[in-house]
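FIELD: query
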Amino acid sequence: MMDSLKIATLLLLLSNFCFCAKLPSSFRKCDRNKKDFNQCLSKAVEDAVRQLTKPIKELGLPSMEPLEVPSLVIGAGSGAVAFEQNYQNTSVSGYGKMSCSKAEMNFETKTFYVHCTFPEVKMEFKYEISGRILLLPIYGKGPGAITLERVETDLTFKLDEYDKKGVKYFKVANVTLVMDPQLIRFKLENLFDGDEALGRNINSVLNDNWKEVFADVKPSYEDAFGKIYFSIFNNVLSKVPVNELFGDT
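FIELD: result
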């Protein structure tokens, strides 16, 4: 009877104890009370992403070099790109060379913003498409790659604060991503059931008209990658308290 009472008491105590995760010692920490807080944040994001050559399971962080995306769907555009892009087993590389020049955390509006530059982002995947591109028919299924060069990104997270066992946490309410590449190169293999001549022609059309092609599906790319970043950041926020991330008030 006494043992049962001790166990019940222990369980009650544990239920009210917060098992809060801490950032890895190699991650840069930034103190909201210091003048260089926002400058520190930009470097902290850059350093953390560059370190993610393998997952950190206790924080729910995946490897970012490369980032593996099992399924990626880019919706059809309203003009040049009249087909849905379905990519499977997508491997995204380039995060290891990103640099972040600006970051801001506004605790009043609970908004986190970061601007980062990627020299190159390469997506390698298995694709399946059928439709029209710039009024030309296109269909195929096979391996492919899309390379985005000199990509400027603006990422804004709107956060909500909540209390868990007396400890304050953030969670992502919504995310806005803006992507501005300076050049895009397409390479889709096995187009038109392996017709090499037609395949070369369509790849040339895509590469020669990349600005028009990307502009038509830009919101879909931003939405798809925004959801990925939403999930990754939310995993960290759900485990690491506000004061561990940004210092005490």
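FIELD: remark
Confidence is low (pLDDT under 50) at residues 8-18.
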